Amino acid sequence: MRRIVIIGGVAGGMSAATRARRMNEQAEIVVLEKGGYISFANCGLPYHLAGRIESESELLLSTPEKVWSRFRIDARVGQEALSIDRAKKLIRVKRLSDATEYDLPYDKLILAPGASAIIPPMSNVDAANVMLLRTMEDMQQIRARLAGQQPRRITIVGGGFIGLEMAEAMVDRGLEVTVVEKNARVLPPIDPEMAKFVEDELAHHGVKVFANNGLKALVGSKDRVTHVELEDGTKLETDIVLLSIGVRPNTTLAKNAGLTIGGSGAIEVDAYQRTNDPDIYAVGDAAEVVHGVSGKRTRIPLAGPANRQGRLAGEHAASDTALAGQSVLGTAIVAVFDLAVAVTGLGEKMARENGFDVDTAYVLPNQHVAYYPGAEAMRIKLIYDKTTGKVLGGQIVGKSGVDKRIDVLATAINFGATLEQLASLDLAYAPQFGAAKDPLHMAAFVALNQMRGKSHGVTLDQVNGDQLLDVRTPDEFAAGTFSGAINIPLDDLRARVGELDRTRPTVVFCHAGQRGFVAERILSQSGFEQVKNLKGGYSMTN
Ligand SMILES: Cc1cc2nc3c(=O)[nH]c(=O)nc-3n(C[C@H](O)[C@H](O)[C@H](O)COP(=O)(O)OP(=O)(O)OC[C@H]3O[C@@H](n4cnc5c(N)ncnc54)[C@H](O)[C@@H]3O)c2cc1C
Question: Torsions phi, psi of 491, nearest 5?
Answer without folding.
Answer: -65, -20
